[in-house]
Structures are given as C-alpha cells and as structure tokens.
Specification:
single chain, 0% strand
Length: 429
C-alpha cells in the first residue's frame, strides 16, 4: 500500500480516538507514531524523534517553573491579594478576577490558577451576596484566553511552534503570541464586563467538587494548606522573571529551552520544589501527545499525505482560494473541534495539515498556524472544552446552554479579531 494512504489511515484512526477519548490522548499519539514505524512509513530513528525536540524540553522546563509558583504559594498569593483588594462590587471584582487570571495563565497552569482562585471567589461572593455564577464563568474564560499570550501559556501554542520546527520552517518566538494574545485578551475582558455578563445566569454557589479542585491544585503543584515560605515565594518569582527576561533578550548561548531548563534546575536546587514534585509538575500527557504527533507530522510531510489533504481542501474551495477565507475556514474547524475535544489534540491534528495547505497555495504557513492555535485555545462554548470550564460547572450551577450562550458570541468575536490582526502581524506573503 502507498505510504501516504497508510499515513492517512493512521491519522483517521488517531482523529477518531482523539474525539472519543476511548483511550488516553497521549497513548493515542504514541500509538500513532509507533504504528507508522511498524508499518515501515517512518524509519526507526524517526519514530520517537519528537521526544528530543527542543520545544518538548522547553515545555517541560516551564511546567516545572509553573509548578514552583503554585508549590511556594506565589501564584495563589498574587491572585488572592488582587481579588480581595477589588472589593465586593460585582463589576470591579469581575475585572480583577479576569485580569489576574489572564496574567497568571500566561505563564503557568490555567487549570491550577482556576483551582486556587475558585474557593476564594466563592467565599467573597457569599459574603457580598453576589451570585457566584457571575464571577466563576469569567474566571474560566480568562484562564482560557490568558494562555494565548505566550508560547507556553497553552499547549496549542507549543504544538503549532513545534509543527513549524518539524517542517524546517521559521518558528514563533516566545513572546510573538502576545501580538494577538494581548489584544484578544483585552477585547474578551471588555466584552465580558460590558456585554457578556448580561448572558450569565444568576446562581448562588453550588457544591464544589472538592476532589477535582484538589486534583487540579496538586497537578499544578499547589502546596494546599501547607505553611508557605515567603523567601521561597520570592525565589520562585525571581526565577520566573529571570527566565522570561532571558527569553526576551534572545541570548545566543541561552536559547529558550536552555533558559527554561536552567530555571527548572534552580527551582529544585533552591528548594522551591523537591525533585519528585518537579517530575509531578510536568504535564506528561501534553509532552507525549506533542512528541507523538510531531512524528506523525513528519510522516505526513515525507509521504505526501499532508499534500493530499491540502489539495483536497483547496480543490473544494476552487482555484486560487483567498488566504483570508481559507484561514477563516481553518479557524472555524479548529474552534469547533476544540469545543468537544482536547485543545492540544485539535491543534496537533490540524497543524501539519495547515502547513501543507498554506504551502500548496504559496503563502507563509505562520498566519495559518497562528489562527489554528488561537482557535484551539478559544474553548468557551462547552463545559467539556477545557478543564477550567469543567471546574466551574458545579459551583456555578451552570447548564450546557449557559456555556453556549456566553461562549458562542466570544468564539465569533475571537474569529473576527484574529482574522483582522493575524494577517497584519504575520502577512501571508
């Protein structure tokens, strides 16, 4: 059988398993690249080459630094201080919650941020007699959009960067995502404050899934009720600032992944994290899913499977399709998929296809992949779209339709903002 057809068959099975999650996402990704090796599509040396990719190393290092922020209590302390200073007026409280969540989610776990702030927000709402639903949905929205600001803020950003690297193309810089992430975050924040909040249901706080909140905190590395050391808080904060500065300066001897690993090592050496806590702080699902799909992307490129998909999509849109229209269509596909499946999986599935399509019509793949990545992160419209959405479901007393009413207009707004800003920041030609 033709290697391209074999690759497409493996990709189709992977796509089905990503959507249904019959088996874990990471297992699906690793099984896909393993199958391509067994079937002779990939040489043995390339089957697991994704695990040595520098972007995987970068993500691992930043996971550890993010875990240190939660373990020392720094992230929680910052969030709680800002939220409490906002007072008990509904709109200023909402603005403070969203602002601090956006900032924290840009450099650390969005799930961990929501898990740490949610109990505090519920307590403030009960004391001030504000419906908890009015503050919890904005918390989840801010956590999702905040991740779009940096490369490590959300897995889709890493996925699209890695896909470009795997294809031998120029990649995105660490802060390059801020060109779209910051404007998008500001617009979503303002929309929520002045328009979106009117679509929010009025419910008092329901019962929290204590186990889910605890698990989310532990996954992020939170110390829970353990005594906090202010010294270690400062150290973890300084390490994060140092790593971010090193990345911003673009030092030749200190590339992004080296800076991240250096920061992770310092977190352990200084006692902000124990060695086992550092390992536990790494989101291994994202690591293995990313690494596995990198190898699948390589197979799609080498066998021509990606070109087959690209030619089919482009053919359906007629000769010389407008790149703006094509980007809009791909944004919609990515955004719809991410409402029902992992945003990491949807980005991993579509990134290599996006590159093939862009190349087939002779445009720069960067704006196409940026649109795919941003669309995958705008997971506002269903409770299962992202863990932050799921965490606030019970305490906010939300129904599926509540997410649809609030989230669909935001998805449309995100599409409009992206189609306007992305081609300006990353021209097609």
């Amino acid at each position: 059988m033709d290697p391209a057809i074999i690759t497409l068959c493996v990709l189709a099975v992977a796509a089905f398993l990503f959507v249904t999650e019959l088996i874990p996402l990471a297992v699906t990704a690793m099984a896909a690249c393993t199958a391509l090796g067994i079937l002779g599509v990939l040489p043995s040396k390339q089957v697991y080459a994704g695990l040595s990719n520098s972007t995987v190393v970068l993500f691992g290092g930043m996971f550890v630094i993010g875990a240190a922020m939660f373990k020392t209590g720094l992230a929680e302390a910052i969030g709680v201080a800002v939220v409490k200073k906002a007072g008990t007026n509904e709109i200023p409280l909402m603005a403070a919650i969203m602002l601090v969540t956006i900032v924290l989610s840009a450099v650390s776990s969005n799930t961990g941020t929501v898990a740490c702030l949610m109990p505090v927000i519920i307590g403030i709402c009960q004391a001030a007699k504000i419906p908890a639903s009015k503050e919890l949905m904005p918390l989840a929205i801010a956590a999702n959009v905040g991740g779009t600001i940096t490369m490590i803020g959300t897995p889709p950003n890493v996925i699209v960067t890695g896909a470009l690297a795997a294809a031998g193309l120029p990649t995105f810089g660490f802060f390059e995502f801020a060109k779209i992430g910051i404007p998008l975050s500001i617009i979503i924040l303002l929309y929520t404050l002045f328009v979106g909040r009117h679509f929010l249901p009025v419910h008092n706080a329901g019962d929290m899934d204590e186990e889910a909140v605890k698990a989310a905190k532990e996954e992020a590395g939170s110390a829970g009720d353990a005594p906090k050391s202010k010294t270690k808080m400062w150290i973890s904060g300084l390490i994060l600032i140092g790593v971010v500065l090193a990345m911003a300066l673009g030092l030749k001897n200190l590339p992004l992944h080296t800076a991240a690993v250096t920061g992770a090592i310092l977190c352990v050496i200084t006692g902000c994290l124990k060695e086992k806590e550092a390992y536990a702080g790494i989101d291994w699902v994202t690591i293995f899913l990313f690494a596995g799909m990198l190898s699948v992307a390589t197979a799609m490129d080498k066998t021509g499977a990606g070109k087959l998909i690209a030619d089919t999509v482009v053919g359906m849109m007629g000769a010389n399709p407008n790149p703006y229209v094509l980007t809009t269509v791909l944004f919609l596909i990515s955004n719809i998929l991410t409402q029902f499946m992992s945003n990491t999986a949807s980005a991993a599935l579509l990134a290599p296809i996006g590159i093939s399509i862009a190349q087939s019509i002779g445009v720069d793949p960067k704006p196409v992949l940026m649109a795919l990545g941003i669309a995958a992160s705008c997971a506002f419209a269903t409770p299962m779209a992202t863990p932050p959405n799921t965490l606030v479901l019970g305490p906010g007393g939300f129904s599926f339709n509540d997410y649809v009413k609030v989230g669909v207009p935001m998805c449309v707004l995100s599409l409009v903002v992206s189609v306007i800003i992305i081609p300006i920041m990353w021209p097609f030609h």
